[in-house]
TrEMBL record:
Record's protein name: Lysophospholipid acyltransferase family protein
Transmembrane segments: 6-39
Keyword terms: Acyltransferase, Cell inner membrane, Cell membrane, Membrane, Transferase, Transmembrane, Transmembrane helix
Compartments, as annotated in UniProt: Cell inner membrane
Origin: domain of life: Bacteria
Organism, scientific name: Mucilaginibacter defluvii
GO MF annotation list: acyltransferase activity
Amino acid sequence: MINKGLSYIGIGFLYLVSLLPFWFLYLIADVLFVVIYYITGYRRKVVQQNLRNAFPEKSDEERCKIERDFFRYFADLIVEIIKGITLSERQINKRIKILNVNLINSYFEQGRNVIGAVGHYGNWEMSALSLGVITDKPRLIVYKPLSNKIFERFFIHVRSRFGATLVAMKNTLRKLSEMRRQVSITVLVADQTPVQHEAQYFTTFLNQPTAVFLGVEKLSKMMDAVVVFCDIKRVKRGYYTCTFVPLAEHPKQTAEYEVTELHVKYLENMIRQQPQYWLWTHRRWKFKPEDKH
């Protein structure tokens, strides 16, 4: 009962903070960066190890700059995600520009479904909100359920308030089967870490063996859906663009794991170009291929 009460208090606090204007939230972010980076050292060792493994060719000074730039952006990202709780449709359209919505519409006109892969890169939460306003066709966002069901219901409400439908990972196939007579776009976060016993495929990602979900590949082949990558770019503080980049227009004609390799490599190239915008605090490499045996 106490935990339940604290959850509701936490949600109320987040809602009130989200009502603050952006300029004030960024002042909070400036303070938050100092607290996270210099005072508490939140997950700095995790970030440093990830950067050493991912960029062995870079100098200590280069990796240190990426680390600092990442944490500065991480503070911004926290307040932007909180602000997203109460962002209006007009504000969403102002803050994130979808540069080629016509591409998705052209696939719909052909009767094709679309599978969108996205990474923990840039403000993926804001891009998920924007998905709700780009089309009136069904928009599905696949999510990983939270252990706290009160917060899960709250974030489902936040993410779906512009018309997108949130679907738990385990229910994705069933939901898409129900919608097989409708064209739709389904978005999956493709760089999440599978549970160790469910890891079926490893690839080389950022210089190290990495377990990846095969959801994008399996769903696209099942539906013969076009696979696109949601390429998010940060323009300036609080402003982004998103471009849908076609990766596989006919996934049924691709070799096994080809679709997976395509979206993994695309994300990797994005990270190498601007590494500060990927979620380096994520414990992405929890286990290795030999741990499966």
